[in-house]
């Protein structure tokens, strides 16, 4: 992408990789099943840094939320974007010129909460910003021009962001498949090949 998401470039001094994968045995259901404990866990890991990671990461944390269960009696548990964990209210910048494709509040435990999706025609890609502050949706309209580097949203609090420790879910999407204001951010292992192709790694896309 052409512009950073946050006010400062992410470096080894202000960010760190955050492992929320199934192989992280210290992250158990007593932690991720309770929002206060989950927030305390994230804060203890990060200190003042931004936690980064999660693309195609297999996570068990979704088992605390019924909406990730599938009709095949398993869970959608492969994360399709990158998460940036930091303080609520942190501003987020548009990564490239584009227009507002759609936006809405996606309610429910574990969902995105307030969500904005931009279309970047020159790049042939859409960008999704999830777990935002509710006030970020005020004044938006579809096809609204967005400039590269423009502040477009802020990280939301747990009570408005789907019940998560404050973080940005950032995802790239090639084909929206008719979705509006929403797009799957997690998939089952069965569907991974399709979604890995339709949702490229933001760190590798240019």
From TrEMBL:
Protein known as: Peptidoglycan DD-metalloendopeptidase family protein
Q: Which PANTHER family match?
A: M23 FAMILY METALLOPEPTIDASE (PTHR21666:SF285), PEPTIDASE-RELATED (PTHR21666)
**InterPro entries assigned:** Cell_wall_metabolism_enzyme, Dup_hybrid_motif, M23ase_b-sheet_dom
**Organism whose genome encodes this protein:** Aquirufa novilacunae
Give TM segment ranges. Answer: none
Give the domain of life: Bacteria
Outline the extent of the M23ase beta-sheet core domain. 78-175
Q: Gene3D superfamilies under this entry?
A: Glucose Permease (Domain IIA) (2.70.70.10)
């Amino acid at each position: 992408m052409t512009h950073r998401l946050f006010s400062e470039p992410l470096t080894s001094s202000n960010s760190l990789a955050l492992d929320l994968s199934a192989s992280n045995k210290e992250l158990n259901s007593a932690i991720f099943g309770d929002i206060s404990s989950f927030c305390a866990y994230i804060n203890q890991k990060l200190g003042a840094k931004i936690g980064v990671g999660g693309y195609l990461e297999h996570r068990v944390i979704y088992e605390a939320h019924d909406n990730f269960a599938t009709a095949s009696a398993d869970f959608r548990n492969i994360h399709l974007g990158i998460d940036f964990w930091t303080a609520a209210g942190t501003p987020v910048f548009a990564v490239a010129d584009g227009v507002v494709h759609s936006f809405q509040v996606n309610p429910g435990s574990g969902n995105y909460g307030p969500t904005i999706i931009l279309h970047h025609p020159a790049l042939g890609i859409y960008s999704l910003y999830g777990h935002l502050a509710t006030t970020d949706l005020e004044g938006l309209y579809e096809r609204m021009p967005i400039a590269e580097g423009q502040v477009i949203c802020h990280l939301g609090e747990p009570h408005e962001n789907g019940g998560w420790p404050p973080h940005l879910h950032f995802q790239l999407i090639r084909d929206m498949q008719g979705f509006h204001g929403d797009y799957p951010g997690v998939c089952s292992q069965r569907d991974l090949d399709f979604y890995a192709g339709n949702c490229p790694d933001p760190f590798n896309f240019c």
